[in-house]
Amino acid sequence: ITKCYLCNVQFHDGVQCGSCKKHLDFGCANISESGWRKLGSARMAQWKCPMCRSSSPAVSTPEPTSLDTILGEIRDMKRQLLNLPALVDDIRAIRDELAGLKISCERTGGRLDEFETRLTEVEEKVSKFDNLHETVNRLQTDLSSTKFLQSSNEQRSRLNNVEIKGVPVKKDENLFSIFEAIGERINYNCPKSQVNYISRVPIFNSNEKLIIISFLNRYVKEDFVAAARANKDLSTSDIGFQGSSQRVYVNDHLSIEYKKLLSKVKSTAKDKQYEYVWVKHSKIHVLKNKYSKVIIIRKDSDLNKLI
C-alpha cells in the first residue's frame, strides 16, 4: 500500500513520476489505469507528474520562497507580537506615573530618571515590533505570491483538458464511444489520435463522476469546448442514453482552487449586477454589460476590480 503524494490517500496501484520519483494515484496523476498500462516500461520510466511537467519550461524563474519557511517565520513573528498589548499598557502606565510625579518632582528626581530609562527601553521594543509588523506584511505578500504561482501551475497543467459533467456511469461503459457521440451531436468529429487519455474522476461528496478528456493539442480542445457551448441543449438522450433526459455540460477542466475562485466570482458578480461570467482558455472572464470592458479574474484580490 502506497500513499498518494498529492491527496495523502493510500492506494494499492498507481503511478510513479520518472522525474521526482513520487507516487500518485491515477486520479491525481490525471491518467487512467488502462492508459498507464499501455505506456509500456520505457514510457512509464519517462512519464512525468503534472507538477514536474509544469515546472519544466526552459526559461528559468526565481525559486519561490518555501511555504513551510514562510509559515514558520509568520508563526515566530506572531508569537513575538503577543507581548505587544502588554508593552503598550506599560507605556500608558509609565506616562500616567510621570504626569503625577512631575507635579511634585523635588524628591523624585531619581525615580524620574529611572522611569525615563524604562520608557526609553519600552519605546525601543515597540519600535522593534513595528519592524516586525513590516516583516509579517512582507512574508504574507510572499506567501500570497507563492500560492498564486502554485495555483497557476496547477491550472496550466490542465490547459489541454475538458471536463464533462452529467453523463451517468454505466457498467462496462466505453468512454471513447461517449466522446464520439458527443462529437457527432455538436458537429465536431475529433479522431481518437488527438486524445491523450480519457477517464472518470469522482466528485468530492458526490456519487457522480466526471469524464476528463485530455487532448494532445490545446487548440483542438478549445475548438471542442466552443462547439459544445454552441449546442447549449446537449443532453443524455442526445448521446444514446435511455430514460429521463438530463443536461450534459462540457467545460474547461479547472483545478480545485480555480473552481473555488469561480464560485466567489459568480457570487460577487451577482451582488454587483454583472451580467456575464464565463471561462475561456481556463481564465475567468466577467462582463458587466455588452458595452463594458471584459475583466479577467486570476486571484481573490482581483475581485476588488468588480465595482
Q: How would you describe what is shown here?
A:
With 307 residues, the protein is α+β, with helices and mostly antiparallel strands. Helix content is 48%, strand content 15%. The protein contains nine helices and eleven strands. The chain has helices at 26-29, 33-46, 50-54, 67-81, 84-103, 109-156, 175-185, 218-230, 256-271; strands spanning 2-3, 10-11, 15-16, 23-24, 161-165, 195-202, 209-215, 249-252, 276-280, 283-287, 295-297. It has a four-stranded antiparallel β-sheet with strand order 6-7-5-8, covered by helices on one side. It has a three-stranded antiparallel β-sheet with strand order 9-10-11, covered by helices on one side. A two-stranded antiparallel sheet has the order 1-2. A hairpin with a 6-residue loop joins β1 (2-3) and β2 (10-11). The longest helix has 48 residues, at 109-156. The model has no long low-confidence stretch (mean pLDDT 87).
CATH superfamily descriptor of the largest domain: L1 transposable element, RRM domain
Beta fraction: 5-15%
Overall morphology: elongated
Q: Output the helix-strand order.
A: EEEEHHHHHHEHEEHEHEEE
Round the mean pLDDT to the nearest integer and report it: 87
Number of helices, where a helix is a run of at least 4 consecutive DSSP H or I residues = 9
List the helices and strands and how they pair.
Layout: E1 2-3, E2 10-11, E3 15-16, E4 23-24, H1 26-29, H2 33-46, H3 50-54, H4 67-81, H5 84-103, H6 109-156, E5 161-165, H7 175-185, E6 195-202, E7 209-215, H8 218-230, E8 249-252, H9 256-271, E9 276-280, E10 283-287, E11 295-297
Helix pairs in contact: 4-6, 5-6
Coiled coil: 105-132
Domain FP protein C-terminal: 257-306
Pfam family, one: Baculo_FP_2nd
